[in-house]
Specification:
The chain contains 9 helices and 9 strands. The model has no long low-confidence stretch (mean pLDDT 80). It has a 6-stranded antiparallel beta sheet with strand order 1-2-3-4-7-8, with no helix packed on it. It has a 3-stranded antiparallel beta sheet with strand order 5-6-9, with no helix packed on it. The longest helix has 38 residues. A hairpin with a 3-residue loop joins strand 3 and strand 4. It is 57% helix and 14% strand. By secondary structure, it is of the alpha+beta class. The protein folds into 2 domains: 244 residues, no CATH class; 97 residues, no CATH class. Helix 1 runs antiparallel to helix 2, helix 2 packs antiparallel against helix 4 and helix 7 packs parallel to helix 9.
């Protein structure tokens, strides 16, 4: 490998590592804030926040890798222009097309990795995330409660509030529950509660001394019951395990289904998802090549101009891929047209950009 190729590969790799690290840190920061908010609201369990964060990072890797590769390439090319190193390379007989080979040395392995992630790893990660959420939804209402917080379930039909247990033998402290069904508005209070598990797998909550108030929603009928012990069934055992139910529910999500399953389905929605998975590695390769002519900037421009340009072009490209995916899913265009047309257009624009940067301008004739 020549000195030119080694220097280009090393610089793209170095810039790519910095950009990738920055993007993944920003992504994790935003993601953790959102997940912690969901955990505080009782939408997910606090014990699965880190697991979902790790799996969500895997699902974001293809896009982050594609963007990092694009920004690293365009930053490397533009730096050579700004610091006049490109003049030295041109004087040594290196043209803009000679950049293609070292860029491909970095881009091709990254695109292969993106392809593996989008076709195999990302669907698996989405399934695991959905299974986490499904298993949490299958938990009993009381097991989701955090002491000192009001928790809604069943789309607001049930509201629970618990306190910290005062006695060591109590699993749950004082309980307040409001249940709204079609005819009755019920409020249950108790001094403590505990979970009882039967040998057959059934689960019950046993409330300590407390009261139950029932009010008719369409009349003045009112009932009050005081109790020393009140037992409610939370779950009963079934022939299908909770993990199997969660797995089956996860497969109903299109992005969670394996690629082979989508190919066999042949529905428009499945083809749209296949288009998205195939397009990401192709888009990463197109963007890496497009970054070479786009990096030919005016040396007087600021250092952020290339990054801003990369962001705009990459955002437009990804939005167009999403648009094509929507059209395929709605049946407006067929799979091949939606998959190939956009990438062919971008490749043609890339070739045209190379042509405009490399052509020799005809000198203007002086006026006689």
């Amino acid at each position: 490998m020549s000195l030119f190729k080694r220097s280009v590969v090393a610089e793209i790799t170095s810039h790519g590592g910095v950009v990738f690290s920055t993007l993944i840190i920003v992504w994790l920061s935003v993601l953790l804030v959102r997940l912690l908010g969901q955990a505080a609201a009782g939408q997910i369990g606090a014990d699965i926040v880190l697991g979902i964060a790790a799996l969500s990072s895997i699902t974001a890797l293809p896009t982050i890798l594609a963007v990092a590769l694009f920004i690293a390439t365009i930053t490397t090319v533009s730096r050579n222009y700004r610091e006049s190193e490109m003049v030295v390379w041109f004087a040594s007989g290196v043209s803009l097309k000679n950049w293609i080979s070292p860029v491909l040395r970095v881009a091709l392995p990254v695109c292969v990795l993106i392809g593996i992630l989008t076709l195999e790893v990302t669907p698996w990660a989405y399934r695991q995330i959905e299974e986490y959420r499904q298993r949490y939804e299958q938990r009993s209402d009381l097991s989701k409660i955090t002491a000192g917080q009001f928790i809604e379930s069943a789309e607001g039909a049930r509201v629970f509030f618990t306190e910290e247990p005062k006695n060591p033998e109590d699993e749950i402290g004082a309980v307040f529950a409001r249940v709204l069904d079609q005819d009755w508005y019920t409020i249950v209070t108790s001094q403590n509660a505990r979970i009882r598990r039967e040998d057959n797998g059934d689960r019950y909550v046993v409330l300590g001394p407390g009261n139950r108030y029932d009010m008719k929603t369409d009349s003045a009928e009112f009932r009050m019951v005081s109790f020393d012990s009140y037992t409610l069934r939370l779950e009963n055992s079934s022939g299908t395990s909770a993990d199997e139910i969660a797995r089956q529910n996860a497969l109903t999500q299109m992005k969670s289904r394996p690629t082979v399953n989508l190919i066999q389905d042949r529905k428009a929605e499945s083809q749209a998802q296949i288009m998205w998975r195939v397009s990401l590695p192709v888009a990463a390769l197109n963007l890496a090549l497009l970054a070479i002519p786009l990096g030919a900037v005016n040396p007087r421009l600021g250092r952020s101009a290339d990054v801003l340009l990369a962001g705009l072009v990459g955002l437009l490209y990804m939005n167009m891929i999403n648009l094509m995916r929507g059209w395929i899913g709605n049946g407006k265009i067929d799979f091949l047209t939606g998959t190939l047309s956009l990438h062919v257009i971008v490749l043609a624009l890339c070739l045209y950009a190379f042509y405009t940067r490399m052509r020799l301008k005809t000198p203007k004739k002086s006026a006689a």
